[in-house]
C-alpha cells in the first residue's frame, strides 16, 4: 500500500511511502489520499481533509515597505502586505495609494546639498588642510600665501553655493571641481 507523507509544519507533500498493510495506515503526517500534480509557483499541501495548492514564493527577494530592507520569503502562502517584490531606489518611499515606490524629492535634495557641502569641505582641505588654514590665520605664512588661500576657498565656496542654487547634480559639481 502507498501512503503520502507531508511536512509536519507546512503540510507540504514530501514523498510516497510503500508500507505493509499489516502495520496499518495510521502513520503520523501521512494520508492515503493521492496528492495533486505539481504546479509551478505552488506547493501541494494537505489541509487535513484534502490536498490543495498553496502559493509558493519561497526564496523570492522582497523589500520591506517601511525600511526597504531586502530579505527572502521563507514561508508558504501569499506575499504579506508589508513587503513587495519591487526593488526600491535610494530615495524611494512606499506609496500605499499607487502601491509603488515613489522618489522622496525632499530627501533626495537634502542628500544632494549635503554631498556638495561635504565634498566642498574635503576639496578645500585637500589643498589647504585645517592646520595650514589655522597657521595662516596666526600669521605663520606671508600675506600673498594667505590671500591665495582665501581666494581659493572663496572661489570653491562660491561654486558650491551656485551648484546648490542651480540644482547642479553632485556628480556634475564634482566633475566641475576636478577639471
From TrEMBL:
Name used for this protein in its record: Uncharacterized protein
Biological source species: Arcobacter sp. AZ-2023
UniProt lineage: Bacteria, Pseudomonadati, Campylobacterota, Epsilonproteobacteria, Campylobacterales
Amino acid at each position: 500500500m502507498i501512503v503520502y507523507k507531508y511536512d509536519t509544519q507546512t503540510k507540504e507533500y514530501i514523498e510516497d511511502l510503500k508500507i505493509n498493510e499489516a502495520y496499518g495506515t495510521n502513520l503520523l503526517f501521512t494520508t492515503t489520499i493521492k496528492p495533486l500534480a505539481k504546479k509551478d509557483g505552488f506547493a501541494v499541501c494537505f489541509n487535513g481533509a484534502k490536498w490543495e495548492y498553496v502559493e509558493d514564493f519561497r526564496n523570492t527577494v522582497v523589500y520591506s515597505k517601511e525600511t526597504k530592507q531586502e530579505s527572502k520569503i521563507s514561508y508558504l502562502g501569499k506575499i504579506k502586505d508589508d513587503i513587495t517584490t519591487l526593488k526600491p531606489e535610494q530615495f524611494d518611499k512606499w506609496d500605499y495609494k499607487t502601491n509603488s515606490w515613489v522618489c522622496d524629492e525632499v530627501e533626495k535634495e537634502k542628500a544632494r546639498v549635503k554631498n556638495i557641502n561635504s565634498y566642498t569641505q574635503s576639496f578645500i582641505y585637500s589643498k589647504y588642510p585645517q592646520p595650514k588654514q589655522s597657521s595662516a590665520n596666526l600669521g605663520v605664512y606671508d600675506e600673498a600665501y594667505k590671500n591665495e588661500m582665501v581666494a581659493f576657498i572663496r572661489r570653491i565656496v562660491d561654486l558650491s553655493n551656485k551648484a546648490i542654487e542651480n540644482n547642479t547634480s553632485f556628480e556634475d559639481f564634482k566633475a566641475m571641481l576636478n577639471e
